[in-house]
Automatic annotation (TrEMBL):
It is a multi-pass membrane protein. It holds the Pfam family MtN3_slv. This is Sugar transporter SWEET1. Belongs to the SWEET sugar transporter family. The keyword Nucleotidyltransferase does not apply. It is found in: Cell membrane; Golgi apparatus membrane.
Amino acid sequence: LAYGLTSRNPYVTLSNIFGCIAAVGYVVGVLPLLGAKAASTEGKKTLRTTQSVVIGGAGIVLSLWTYLGLSNLPLTQISEFLGFFASGLFIIFSASPLSTISTVIATRDSSSILGSLTAAQCINTSLWSVYGLAVKDKFVWGPNFIGLGLGLVQLVLKILFPAKTKAV
């Protein structure tokens, strides 16, 4: 969102406003579910970890935006810094479903990778890659090409190791 604002790109900005709202909605929706599980020691730990990540992450991002906003750096330099920052975060998010890759291969079961999320990632990153190339913005096409590659790896794992169904 901040990169879209500083690069004055209305498409990146507007799409990320909705993404930010959806992310806040997700956290607001998930925290009560984690709180309900907090009766157990593991549930309390999961809730505290999630809260710490959300609060810590928000603190880091807001501190970065504040520093850059109050600095005397040229807008182009601020935009480039935010572009690298956003690209790095996006690549981490795109790769996160692959955190279970060793389990998927060992068990020959891809049920830990959500097919609908994989399809959405491939479609989304394909479209943003094409747009990024069209407007010649490396911070749009670069991380999205990487995200597309990571999505295709997930898709290949889904094909090679179909999710095993549980017998009822």
